[in-house]
Design brief:
This protein is mainly α. The chain has 12 helices and no strands. Helix 3 runs antiparallel to helix 7 and helix 8 crosses helix 9.
Length: about 210
Amino acid sequence: MKPRHVRPALAHLRRCDPVLAQVIERVGPCRLELRTEGTHFHALLRSVLFQQLSGGAARTIHERLRALYGGRDPTPAELLATDEAALRAAGISRQKQTYLRDLAAHVADGRIDLERIDVLDDEAIVERLTRVKGVGEWTVQMFLLFRLGRPDVLPCADLGVQKAIQRAWGLPALPRPKEVAAIGTPWRPFASVASWYLWRSLEVVTPG
């Protein structure tokens, strides 16, 4: 999702869905920014590390991990060579270590070529990356949206997206993933911008 794509995305979303158009109006300008620092491996490592942790706790553990390598993220080979006790002392659980090592192993031995993953379509990337232990569809969708900038990502099982749709559409209960997919069908091929607006809408106080 390049900056030049945002304007046609907004025009399409406003035209195809009057409820989403109101959400866009309340939230204001689109400030969707990609996470460009580090490598694709580092982005996935961070995503796995942050799973099921509060933001503050995850950032502390991440900094402790980086401290093991001179204040930077490790390469796959470096992570695989790191002693379990050192990772545990950094605050990384045994289960989370298994996930991180499996990710590193997939990249190190070439089962996943992150250098060329950009050439694959979204479905192929989801299929490839979810082979890694601890990497589910949601994690890959966040990678597609915020790392690769893919324009048509709609994380139907995301609680924030579901809450935002319930609120904006006045639904009596949280929509199921199939309902989210149905509501979001008109947004394609710009579902990523719609998703961003739904998340941000939860931060906007509704008048009255």
